[in-house]
Amino acid sequence: MTLGVRGIVVDGEGRVLLVRHTYTPGWHFPGGGVEKGETAALSMQRELKEEAGIEAATGAIRLLSVHANHGFFPNDHVLVYRIDTWTQGEATSRGEIAGVQFVDPLMPPEGVSPATRRRLDEIFAGADTSELW
Predict the structure, then answer these.
(1) Residues 30, 132: Cα–Cα separation, whole Å
(2) Which residue numbers in the chain have pLDDT < 70?
(3) In angstroms, rounded to a whole number, what is the distance separating the alpha carbons of residues 10 and 16?
(4) pLDDT tens for residues 78-97?
(5) Do 108 and 35 contact (CB within 8 A), yes or no?
(6) What is the pTM of this model?
(7) Which of 44, 51, 60, 90: CA 20 to 30 A from 21?
(8) Rounded CA gap, 126 and 80, in Å?
């Protein structure tokens, strides 16, 4: 089994953070794979710092949902967290992120990934939650 995390970082205006990677098309929530020896929450903290310079407040990472991502890899799962309390720092990743922006969750930019769009609809527009990524 493989495990990934994605973070729904919400700013004071209700906008949501999206990132664009250099190695795959589209806009996505920040996140990535849980590394050996990490907890999922620690992995989420690391990915936020690396990709966007986001430093989540202690206890501010809240699990929202779990999704099977079998279309990507058999027995892969993605945990979705929400982060409402955070501070902005410097991103530590170099060369992985092509763009970072806060967007209206009901009007995401062109090119948002299908899974990201589904999560936005579930969390912010009241759509039913799917167990599939």
Answers:
(1) 18
(2) none
(3) 5
(4) 999 999 999 999 999 889 99
(5) no
(6) 0.94
(7) 60
(8) 16
